[in-house]
Amino acid sequence: MYAQQKGFTLIELLVVIAITAIMATIALPNMSEWIASRRAASQAEQVANLLRFARAEAVRLNLPVYVCPVQIRKNGIPDNKCDTKYNQSGILAYADKSGDVNYNDDRADIFLRT
After folding, report:
1. Which site in 17, 72, 91, 111 is 20 to 30 Å from 55, CA atoms measured?
2. What residues form the membrane-spanning segments (predicted)?
3. Distance from C-alpha of 106 to C-alpha of 95, rounded to nearest angstrom
4. SS3 call for 91
5. Whole-angstrom Cα distance, residue 22 to residue 4?
6. What does the alpha-carbon distance between residue 12 and residue 10 come to, in Å, rounded to a whole number?
7. How far is C-alpha 75 from the geometric centre of its chain's CA atoms?
8. Beta strands in the chain (DSSP E)
């Protein structure tokens, strides 16, 4: 750049844009892998937190507490039936007052968290 100019030339701007594009091309695949690994780690941490919570509630209520997979409806409410198939979208924790190991409803069992 010349001493009297107060800006950048077109060639300088194009070089900067090209370098930025090359760096973005290199960084984006690594970024998407990092996001996927963080998402998996976050879900694992959520499951671990739910298991810790279930254990604490079992001690507090002096009842057996079960954790099972459930389907989450579009409105965000679980269908309250433990889903033994592999198409679950959430996890339900409940205290089993009735003693039959199945989650029935809030009158027979205590809903804790989903």
Report:
1. 72
2. 7-28
3. 10
4. strand
5. 31
6. 5
7. 17
8. 65-70, 90-95, 110-113
Q: Which two tokens stand for residue 43?
A: 């879900």
Q: Which two tokens stand for residue 51?
A: 């298991």
Q: Please check whether residue 82 is in contact with residue 68, taking contact to mean a CB–CB distance below 8 angstroms.
A: yes
DSSP H helices, the chain, are: 10-61
CB proximity list for 95: less than 8 A, separation 6 or greater: 57, 58, 61, 63, 64, 65, 109, 110, 112
Q: Which two tokens stand for residue 37?
A: 């690994």
For residues 103 and 80, the answer to whether their CB atoms sit within 8 Å is yes
Contact in structure between 61 and 33 (CB atoms under 8 Å):
no
Query: Residues 6 or more apart from 54 whose CB is under 8 A from it?
Result: 65, 66, 67, 93, 112
pTM: 0.65
